[in-house]
Amino acid sequence: MKYDSRPFRLVRNEQLADGIFDWTVENDTIPALASCGQFANVKVFGRTLRRPISICDADERSLRLVFQVKGEGTRLMSQMKVGEEVEILAPLGHGFELEKGKRYCLIGGGIGVPPMLFTAKQCENPLVITGFRDKSLVILQDDFRNAGAELVLTTDDGSAGRKGFVTDVLSERIGEIDEVLACGPIPMLKAIYSVCKGKVKCQVSLEERMGCGIGACLVCACKQKPKDGEAFMSQVCRHGPVYNAEEVFFDE
Ligand SMILES: Cc1cc2nc3c(=O)[nH]c(=O)nc-3n(C[C@H](O)[C@H](O)[C@H](O)COP(=O)(O)OP(=O)(O)OC[C@H]3O[C@@H](n4cnc5c(N)ncnc54)[C@H](O)[C@@H]3O)c2cc1C
Ligand code: FES
User: Fold this and answer.
1) Which residue segment(s) compose the domain that 226 sits in?
2) How far apart are alpha carbons 146 and 138 in whole angstroms?
3) Does one domain contain both 164 and 182?
4) How far apart are CA 110 and CA 104, in angstroms?
5) CA distance linking residue 187 with residue 197, whole number of Å
6) pLDDT tens, position by position, 54-71
7) pLDDT 10s digits, 165-187
8) What pLDDT, on the 0 to 100 scale, is given for residue 1?
9) Å from CA of 177 to ligand 1 middle
10) Residue 241's CB: how many other CB atoms inside 10 A?
């Protein structure tokens, strides 16, 4: 069994920052199957489509999911009470591929930061660069430090950490790393890839509207660059959400 839909118990629901919530959910069998970069599809009471949320961390019995309230589904999730049951389909998708002996640079932008925590825990001495719009949205800094990462914080307006973009730091440090793993908004991923191109390998995690989350409905189809021959449509829920950046059409 690679994934399954099971009832989880919500054991923690805390507000981390303005509109951003931190869940821990428990189940006896599913969490141990998770690997970094995968996601969970959360059933929201009264809604047909589940909400895809990246796995921020996992151990034998629990998943940590950090989410931002965007619409009705995530608003209802934020209001759930500790002790309630929630149906979750997980772990889904193709996550980050890691090789021993490499120094990784992990980059997260905004709500793309959470999946980089589980990833940082699987890497040796990673350099982690986190970028946020401003101080009010900064999350998970202590968690990355506790995971042993070398951590750099940037904000667009300089209200916390260094003023500027994650790519300013990446450009300065690119000579020290073997590969970049990134999650965040498309313009950020595109800018990261242009710094990496021709220098270091880069894997990016993409976000796409989803239905089933398991490759059955085609809602998440996106065009992907083939290694040779014609471009083909890929299902982000199944072939992704993590891709080699060179396979991604950033402009289309
Ligand atoms: C692989 C993956 C991982 C994600 N990880 C996280 C995470 O860790 N934290 C986080 O805060 N958000 C994450 N998102 C985005 C999150 O799924 C959406 O913000 C959420 O589904 C919005 O639901 P809603 O009901 O609040 O919003 P509404 O806009 O009301 O949603 C309406 C419908 O559109 C879908 N939808 C809306 N926005 C998105 C979106 N950006 N991606 C996919 N489906 C969407 C919803 O699932 C729902 O079916 C992730 C998305 C994907 C695809
Ligand atoms: S969400 Fe259904 S195929 Fe990807």
Assistant:
1) 208-252
2) 16
3) yes
4) 19
5) 15
6) 999 999 999 999 999 999
7) 999 999 999 999 999 999 999 99
8) 54
9) 31
10) 26
